[in-house]
């Protein structure tokens, strides 16, 4: 049982990666839309590139959304409007008119105009022939109207025949004018305003039901294609009816592919492709970024960011696929470059774009634009902690998006007249969203315990608590660290390494000397050497322990692992030669292994550079009457000895880069010793 537990414990990191791999694959497949993928790509107005296509099964030709919308509008115009009519109101209006008429006109006027009363009655009958509306309705004059009395249909007319509540004025005036009684217009209008009441009210329920019936009767298809029918031949232009037929086939194909019988099989196929893509990422990490592969937190971080980009893109596509370019996909390579390196950032970005190619419309166009934008991101964004650099790079990325999309549009459409300017606005929004990378990096640093160039900039401040403590307890070591930082930064700039990272590593690489500062020559101001009282083995232990002490101090002060790597590797497995020779003189059987640093050896370009600069700077203090020739030989001998000792075998640094670093160190030391470089005559 204990053996099983021990075996599980030894392999728990690998088991975690397997679980992470499987869970990420599952989540990505779960996020993918559940529809099949049509095997042919086609664009409107472009030639059909594949072989001649025959209908694989019977299917209907679907109408375009524009056609369906047009038919819906026509159905809405034809659909009748229902009004409830109250016929009892007319008789009460006539009674009210009779009473009001007597008070509105003098007897002399009534006696003089015997038909005046009858004109009013005729007008009321005319107004209530179809009815008076209770409010203003926005219907066309020709709109068909059905009048309903209770549960029965009372009549049918046009909306123009209905009288608005204040629309009887013209009817009164026309009637009075026809009978030569126009001088009584004002009195009649005032009288009618008092007595006229609406008797028509919109029946919303019947009106909506009638409209729904009309809309339901609209067919979403027009005609059908039988199995085996030639749809399009190779080289034919995809346009008009052929485009509609191909679009219908694509829709029908995708709906038929995902049925109950083969659903699980297709899910399995999707899972294989996603798993294969993620496996490529793990293999890349294992082969080229072993330190990342061994750190489960970093692997989780990379998988999380890929999953986040896929989630955001899926949400946008489910809402409206036309906004797919709003998703700031270039944040992914930016973030990974900030925490790791450009090569890993670009590799992960390309894999993510390949995965998204399954679900986005116009997948080739999308993948081309996103991969090009990712490459531009990697090439242009440097020194992310400088805000101006980020703004300039985002502007360049946005410009690349716009240029590439414009070129694709012209290729597909053959003109620029129908281009939608709002699409360019989506790219601008995407660029602005990319600026969110700064706060996002800060959040990631806190969540995952990673370090970016922004954090490195803060750590490079010599007023930090730890560096102040170093300057107080071991001033010589602090001065040595500053010199090494300057040498290392200049060397890093020469060979394209991370100058900010190496400067911070150089500032902290010797903090372990704070524990026993007087045992290191740079801090022995009085000339008294405590090693004189110790054996060579005891002295060697103190010297070597400054690496272990430095790692312990760094962890207590929460320094990032990338900085601790410099403390751990700055001596590699080199030999403490002075005390080894001293012990060798006393005991011929002394082994070198007892006097070597525990390592590990430098395993990056930056840690290798620091090792060179640290050794050269420390040993330069022993130079007597330095000249340019002496400095050249001195630098050559120290670095060549480290190379012969195999200290740089695990670091990705070339001979050419080492020669460039030697050149920088020679020039810098010559400046430190105020020497003029000797040029050949």
From TrEMBL:
Gene3D superfamilies in the cross-refs: Hypothetical protein af1432 (1.10.3210.10)
Keyword Cell membrane set for record: no
Keyword Glycosyltransferase: no
SUPFAM superfamilies cross-referenced by the UniProt entry: HD-domain/PDEase-like (SSF109604)
Domain HD stretches: 477-619
Keywords, in A-Z order: Membrane, Transmembrane, Transmembrane helix
Pfam families: 7TM-7TMR_HD, 7TMR-HDED, HD
Protein name as it appears in the record: HD family phosphohydrolase
Protein species of origin: Psychroserpens luteus
Taxonomy of the source species: Bacteria, Pseudomonadati, Bacteroidota, Flavobacteriia, Flavobacteriales
């Amino acid at each position: 049982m204990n053996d099983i537990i021990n075996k599980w414990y030894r392999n728990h990191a690998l088991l975690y990666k397997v679980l992470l791999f499987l869970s990420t694959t599952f989540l990505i497949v779960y996020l993918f839309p559940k529809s099949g993928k049509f095997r042919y790509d086609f664009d409107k107005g472009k030639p059909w590139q594949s072989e001649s296509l025959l209908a694989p099964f019977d299917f209907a030709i679907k109408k375009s959304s524009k056609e369906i919308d047009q038919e819906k509008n026509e159905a809405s115009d034809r659909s009748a409007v229902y009004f409830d009519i109250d016929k009892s109101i007319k008789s009460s209006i006539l009674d009210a008119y009779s009473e009001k008429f007597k008070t509105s006109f003098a007897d002399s006027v009534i006696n003089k105009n015997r038909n005046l009363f009858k004109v009013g009655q005729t007008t009321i009958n005319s107004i209530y022939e179809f009815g008076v509306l209770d409010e203003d309705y926005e219907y066309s004059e020709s709109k068909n109207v059905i009048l309903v009395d209770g549960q029965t249909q009372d009549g049918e007319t046009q909306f123009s025949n209905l009288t608005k509540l204040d629309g009887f004025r013209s009817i009164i005036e026309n009637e009075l004018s026809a009978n030569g009684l126009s001088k009584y217009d004002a009195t009649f209008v005032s009288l009618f305003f008092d007595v006229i009441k609406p008797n028509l009210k919109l029946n919303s329920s019947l009106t909506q039901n009638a409209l729904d019936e009309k809309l339901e009767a609209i067919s979403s298809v027009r005609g059908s294609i039988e199995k085996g029918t030639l749809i399009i031949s190779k080289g034919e232009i995809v346009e008009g009816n052929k485009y509609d037929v191909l679009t219908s086939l694509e829709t029908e194909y995708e709906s038929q592919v995902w049925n109950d019988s083969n659903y699980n099989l297709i899910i399995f196929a999707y899972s294989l492709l996603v798993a294969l893509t993620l496996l490529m990422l793990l293999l890349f990490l294992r082969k080229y970024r072993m330190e990342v592969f061994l750190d489960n937190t970093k692997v989780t971080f990379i998988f999380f960011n890929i999953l986040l980009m896929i989630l955001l893109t899926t949400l946008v596509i489910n809402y409206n696929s036309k906004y797919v370019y709003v998703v700031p996909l270039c944040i992914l390579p930016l973030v990974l470059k900030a925490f790791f390196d450009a090569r890993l950032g670009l590799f992960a970005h390309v894999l993510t774009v390949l995965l998204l190619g399954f679900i986005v419309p116009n997948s080739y166009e999308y993948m081309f634009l996103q991969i090009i934008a990712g490459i531009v991101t990697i090439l242009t964004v440097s020194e992310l902690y400088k805000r101006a650099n980020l703004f300039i790079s985002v502007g360049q990325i946005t410009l690349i998006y716009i240029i590439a999309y414009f070129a694709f549009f012209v290729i597909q459409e053959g003109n620029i007249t129908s281009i939608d300017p709002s699409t360019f606005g989506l790219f601008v929004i995407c660029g602005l969203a990319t600026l969110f990378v700064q706060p996002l990096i800060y959040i990631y640093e806190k969540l995952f315990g990673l370090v970016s160039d922004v954090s490195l900039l803060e750590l490079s401040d010599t007023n930090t608590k730890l560096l102040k403590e170093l300057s107080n307890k071991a001033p010589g070591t602090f001065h040595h660290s500053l010199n090494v930082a300057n040498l290392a930064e200049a060397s890093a700039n020469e060979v394209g390494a991370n100058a900010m990272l190496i400067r911070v590593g150089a500032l902290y690489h010797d903090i372990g000397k704070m524990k026993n500062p007087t045992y290191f020559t740079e801090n022995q101001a009085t000339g008294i050497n405590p090693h004189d009282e110790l054996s060579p083995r005891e002295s060697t232990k103190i010297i070597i322990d400054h690496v272990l002490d430095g790692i312990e101090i760094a962890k207590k002060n929460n320094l990032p692992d990338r900085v601790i790597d410099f403390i751990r590797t700055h001596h590699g497995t080199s030999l403490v030669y002075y005390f080894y020779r001293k012990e060798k003189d006393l005991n011929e059987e002394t082994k070198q292994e007892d006097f070597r640093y525990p390592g590990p050896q430098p395993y990056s370009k930056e840690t290798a550079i620091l090792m060179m600069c640290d050794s050269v700077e420390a040993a330069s203090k022993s130079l007597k009457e330095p000249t340019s020739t002496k400095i050249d030989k001195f630098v050559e001998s120290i670095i060549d000895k480290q190379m012969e000792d195999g200290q740089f075998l695990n670091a990705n640094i070339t001979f050419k880069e080492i020669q460039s670093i030697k050149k920088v160190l020679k020039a810098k030391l010559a400046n430190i010793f105020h020497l003029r470089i000797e040029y050949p005559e």
